[in-house]
Amino acid sequence: MNYYEPADIVIYIEGRGVVLKEKSLMALDETSGKILAFGNEAERMAKNPEDSVKIVSPLRRGMVAEYGATVKLFLYFLHKAGERKLFHKPAIAVSAPEGMTEVERKALEESLFQAGAGKVYISEMTVEELARKLGQGNEKALKNFHTIFGIVPDEV
Which of 42, 67, 59, 76 lies closest to 4 in space, CA to CA? Predict the structure, then answer.
């Protein structure tokens, strides 16, 4: 196994609640590099490792560690949550770990844009705090946002 400290990805959609909660993992075929699984399925594969399967965590401690893999991971999760549709670019408010540098914030923002986001708002509020503010409709910065993408780092 080649992963450590995967973040939890939580997607909350206004009016639907939490629609996804999975680990930020990918399972790859070591020979071909082909993606075999994402999220919780990749975690299950890690528990019964095969020689030809490599488990990677493109987000470590909630920060983008492998940009290209992170974009693929976000694409998969947005599609699975029903937010990745033709001609639909969701406005995504992101609950991100505290203490991110400007470079780390930019990598996170750009990876979400590459995955299909139309707008990205990054906050250090928790998913629950963002959801509450979204529901109240009084947070000016969150106007027109209805999807919250939570990145919750595992504690070491």
Answer: 59
